[in-house]
Amino acid sequence: MSILVVLLSLAAGAYALAVIERWAVHGHLSLTGPAWAALALMGRESLLARKSDRLFFELGPVLLLVAGLMAVAVIPLAPGLIITDLATGALFLNAALAYVLVALIMAGWGPNGAYAMIAGWRFLGQFIAYAMLIVMPITAVAMRAESLSTVEIVASQAQLWNVLYQPMGFVLFVVAAMGLAWLPPLDLPDATGELAGGVEAEYTGVRLAVLRLARMVIILALAGATVTFYLGGWLGPWLPAWAWSAIKILAVAAAMLSVGRYMPRIREARYLALSWKLGISLALANIFVVGVIALVVPI
Amino acid sequence: MTIAGAREGAMYGIRRAVAAAMARDLTAFVLPGPSVARSMGIDLANAHLRIVGTPRHANVLIIAGPLDVGLRDAAAVAYAQMPRPRTILALGAGDIAPLPDADVSAPLTQAGLHSGLADLRRVVAAGAFRANTGEFTAAALEVRVEYTCPMHPEIVRDAPGDCPKCGMTLVPRETASDGHGGHGGHDMPREDRPNPADHAHAGHAHDAGGSGAYTCPMHPEVISDASGKCPKCGMNLAKAEEVESHGHGHGHGHASHAPSAHGDHAGHDDKAGGSGAYSCPMHPEVISDAPGKCPKCGMNLVKAEEVESHGPGHGHGHGGHGGHGKQQDHSGHDGHAGHGGHSKATIDGIEPHFMSMVELTEGQPRSSDGLQMDWIEVPFGPFFPGLPAGLRLTLTLDGDTVAASEVRSLVGRAELVDGPPMAVVDFVERLAAMMPLSPVAYRILACASIEEAARVDPGQNARRGRAAAGERERIVSHLGWLAEFGTQSGFLWLAARAGALQLAVRDADIDGIAAQALAIRRLIRRVEAAPLMRMRLGRIARIGKDTPASGPVDRARGGGSDARTGDPTLKDLGFEMRVRNGGDALARLRLRCDEIAQSLDLIAAAGMIAVPQVPDVDRVSGEGEARIETPRGTASLRVKLANGKVVEADLDTPTDVNIALVETVTAQQELGDALSAVASLDLSPWEVRG
């Protein structure tokens, strides 16, 4: 039952995100736009590039979708409303999203086009930038909750949300999540002005629809993770728990989607340099500070 | 109603709904480009369209204005890449062959765009699917299969067979029928296989194609016409023939990178000179007493003596070649020699004959960072989002670093007067129409030079008016550049805002500009303060003071020239040359912002805007020259009049100067940086001498 509810809310969330993305990218705010666009995509030819690596080409978008759905499985939307409350939920989320890298490299290599291929390899470089910065802030979150279960993590924030308890970790996690979901200004693998769509460039029709849906699911999973780890999950006054989850997740996702509109894309070399030199130092400092606070003032 | 690019299938049931959805959700790929459409006054952002960066994601191809002949093949390729159902909307385009006839044609105006799109939606809703659809064919799309040797890429045959050099079976590869190596006219790579073997050779061949007489013994990719030092390692460059004849010397050079290769020849000699009489040219460890095939690669075994003499003999055999293709053979064979060396198992932990990356890449040109990677040649343009439309940039990528670049305009200008003497009016119109990105500036230039030739004075008021018209176009052009930069760098707010302001200012009168001035100044402030901006453009595309450059590119390096400094009209209006320091892409962006602000002041001071009228010259003869500062730099035009008609005209444009900088600013840059660098030059391919 809860699986069905989560999947339905996921579908609704993906649709809402598509509306927001159209507004952020093309400047049109239209509630029915994504529905028409999806229907139109279904009717278009789904071309197979010549000399493509068929297996990789077909599997890339599907694997991306599967990775996103697996990540969603450990996001609690309300008490009891979670597909599976794993004892290692936070770790599982991270493991599921590791397949995003594999899927993008497959999707980049598969279609036999230079733009897509470069884009796929670019994402490998990007992985090196964001990977540590996803894990290390989660470590600090788990330290406070004394559990990797996402439900426990939400419960641990009853007194004080983690965004206030460990703000540095919050910032690092959100930036890393945007890198993982290749959102502007960290959209190196589908940079329109540099690679004409990059990984997406050779996908058309149904395959493109799957790829786009998968991306929306990943963004939702990451927004859900941000809310779970830092914004108190379903916690909140007056409204029912599920409503708080929905509001928070959509707000985080909308912010992640639209912030890139106001700045140029980062350069890959600078992104890597900043992530390692600054990001990892800050993440270590965050773990240390959280450790000290957890020992001294137990809240 | 049907469309030429309908998708196969009967129009029933769910397909009607799908067709209706397609009609509502038009995604457009714009030719020659959204920026060109904007400078023609077409506001695509206001047409309920989604503009996409690749034809693969589009279902309508919008052609804005007459399509240059040089772009038509590329347009056909773009159309062929669109998934069906696909449509063409031609706005004042005229002849567009080899593209099929436009599904909807409309005049090149905003009203034309809206009515054309309305018609298009009806056509799509009614005819997106059709029972029998035809194939779209065009000469540019035809693919020819040719056969080449995997080891000797210079061997190319029309029919299958064996390589005359090594006897290996030739492998098929596809190429465009025009013989341009498969890339001609394609704006998207169709031939670029991410296949190491193919690309290694393609990139390699490209690199070796120089004609320089001097080269570095360590870095064969360094080729120079004059003696000197290698820019990579500082060694003295050697004459190409010397390097060529030093077959062993070269091998030693590589041996220093991979120590195991050094013992190679000894081992090689031992084995080959041993008991076996026959050996494989590729796998010296394969030795047989009888002739036959190599069990590893299937090549014919050759007599041991032949193998023995192969290495040294090779240098002689190719001594007669010029620079072309030389390093390729050379290093290729050194690579094989090294193969034998590796098979001696001198690397601990790697079993003999292990296919190592060292072997695969040995002998290939080395990148500046010392890593060896596949080189692939990737075409960008002429319709690439974020690069000037009409520009064909071919980058040889070493990983994602640009190892070599080649730039070409597909819309270069023809001679201004090619044929009988031209009426003055026709001449002015022709020049203005040739430059879609800055028609007003070239109209002013044409009128000024004719006035010089005819010794006519337009009067002080006309001068002020046209100065202001020129400044208005500068604002429009720089805003257009900002919008392009926004598109390229994903700064979408900037792309939308600058594009909208560009359209608002384009035809505005003095009050209209005053009304927009505040919004423009606010935009400039936000651009300069945008996060990540300095990181994105700082120290990119640095140009030294000694390199010839024109316009904002010139003035953004702490000096430079501006044709406006000598203009008394502009001086009266308070013109002072703006300069920025740094010489990088960031300085150019800031200088353009400065110039926009200054042009607003100049227009306000002029108090009137007047595009020049064609001067009335009555059967005058004479010569005259004029120089003006177009938005991209200094342009000068010399005309000769005879009996009131233009008989000779000679034009120099800023892009003629600045396009030569592309190679410098892209060399050894990461791909994204290289594209930012090219964009920062603000080239107009139409200004390039064709």
Describe the fold and architecture.
- With 299 residues, chain A is mostly helical.
- In chain A, 70% of the residues lie in helices and 0% in strands.
- In chain A, helix 1 packs parallel to helix 11.
- Chain A is globular, with a radius of gyration of 19 Å.
- The two termini of chain B are 41 Å apart.
- The model of chain B is unreliable at 177-212, 241-276, 305-347 and 349-354 (pLDDT under 50).
- At the A-B interface, helix 1, helix 2, helix 5, helix 9 and helix 12 of A face helix 1, strand 3, helix 14, helix 15 and helix 17 of B.
How do you describe this structure in short?
The complex is a heterodimer of chains A (299) and B (690). Helix content of chain A is 70%, strand content 0%.
Which descriptors apply to this entry?
heterodimer, A: 299 residues, mainly alpha, B: 690 residues, 5-stranded parallel sheet, 4-stranded antiparallel sheet, 23 strands, globular
Rg of chain A, Cα atoms, Å: 19 Å
The tally of helices of chain A reads 12
Oligomer status: heterodimer
**Total DSSP E strands of chain B:** 23
Q: Structural class per helix/strand content of chain A?
A: mainly alpha
Q: Could you tell me the mean pLDDT of chain B? A: 75
Beginning-to-end CA distance, first to last residue of chain A = 34 Å
- Major sheet of chain B, described briefly? 5 strands, parallel
The string of secondary-structure elements of chain A, in order, is HHHHHHHHHHHH
Q: Please give the alpha-carbon distance between the first and last residues of chain B.
A: 41 Å
List the helices and strands and how they pair.
The complex is a heterodimer of chains A (299) and B (690).
Chain A: H1 2-26, H2 33-43, H3 54-72, H4 89-109, H5 114-145, H6 150-155, H7 162-165, H8 167-180, H9 192-195, H10 205-230, H11 241-259, H12 268-296
Chain B: E1 7-8, H1 14-24, E2 27-31, H2 34-39, E3 50-51, E4 60-64, H3 72-81, E5 87-91, E6 104-106, H4 110-127, E7 129-130, E8 143-148, E9 156-157, E10 171-176, H5 196-208, E11 214-215, E12 223-224, E13 238-239, H6 240-245, H7 247-257, H8 264-272, E14 278-279, E15 287-288, E16 302-303, H9 304-317, H10 326-342, H11 357-361, E17 375-380, E18 391-398, E19 401-409, E20 422-423, H12 424-434, H13 439-454, H14 460-489, H15 492-506, H16 510-529, H17 533-537, H18 552-555, H19 568-572, H20 585-606, E21 622-630, E22 633-642, E23 645-652, H21 654-658, H22 662-666, H23 671-680
Parallel strand pairs in B: 1-7, 2-3, 2-4, 4-5, 5-6
Antiparallel strand pairs in B: 8-9, 8-10, 11-12, 11-13, 14-15, 14-16, 17-18, 18-19, 20-23, 21-22, 22-23
Helix pairs in contact in B: 1-4, 7-10, 8-10, 12-13, 14-15, 14-20, 14-23, 15-16, 16-20
